[in-house]
Write a structure and sequence with these properties.
The structure is a single chain. By secondary structure, the protein is an all-alpha fold. The protein is built from three helices and no strands. It has one domain. This is Proteinase inhibitor.
Length: 82
């Protein structure tokens, strides 16, 4: 599955414990990453300073569902149970 451009669910729903430029302590779940632009695209995509956890995330139907809202709901649920 290809990532849905402009979704941004993986940059909002999960907590990220590793440092992110502009967020040196990572980010809590449900908080929009400061590197997500107005079009919900990552400003660090393809750059070496992008956190490894972000680089290793791959879109899949089970997580991303069929809509941006479903992706946000699914990732939020996964975050809550882990």
């Amino acid at each position: 599955m290809e990532c849905r451009l402009g979704c941004g669910a993986c940059c909002i729903a999960p907590s990220i414990s590793s440092p992110i430029p502009g967020m040196p302590n990572g980010k809590p779940a449900g908080v929009r990453c400061v590197q997500l632009n107005d079009e919900n695209l990552c400003k660090l995509f393809g750059k070496p300073e992008r956190p490894k956890v972000c680089h290793h995330f791959k879109a899949c139907p089970d997580v991303c569902g069929s809509s941006n809202q479903q992706a946000l709901d699914n990732i939020t649920e996964l975050e809550n149970i882990t």
